[in-house]
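user: can you give me the structure for this one chain? tokens are fine.
assistant: on it. calling the predictor now.
[tool input]
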Amino acid sequence: MTVTKTSVLVLDCAEPEALAEFYASLLDAEIQVVSDPDFVELVGHNGVHLAIRRDHGYAPPSWPRPDDAQQAHLRILVAHGDLDEAEREAVSLGAMPMEAKANGGLRGVRFYADPAGHSFSLAVPPRDEPAGRGEEAP
């Protein structure tokens, strides 16, 4: 018998409430406070489920230093025609643009750091992406 499962991405940071506000605004999600003051969950439309956990010794990931380099990032999908507007919204909420290796021409993926330093990308789904423009690490 298979046990029913679901998953949630948990981001560590120093201030979970502030980071939860950033992602709730960016993803049009609702913040759900649980009984643990160091843990906040976000639930939104289209299956968004993200959690933020306080880490009292938190240090932001870095790129490209190998000792504490990025291990994963959140990829947020947007329609091709909405990429510029999604970028403006993310930056207005506090996201910091990160340079990508390939910056020329049309870009179907754009990289940012959230206010706590986690990397994430705004990306056009592969079926909408121009040929030859896959995702590359910043």
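assistant: here you go. Helices lie at 16-27, 83-92. The CA atoms of residues 93 and 105 lie 26 Å apart.
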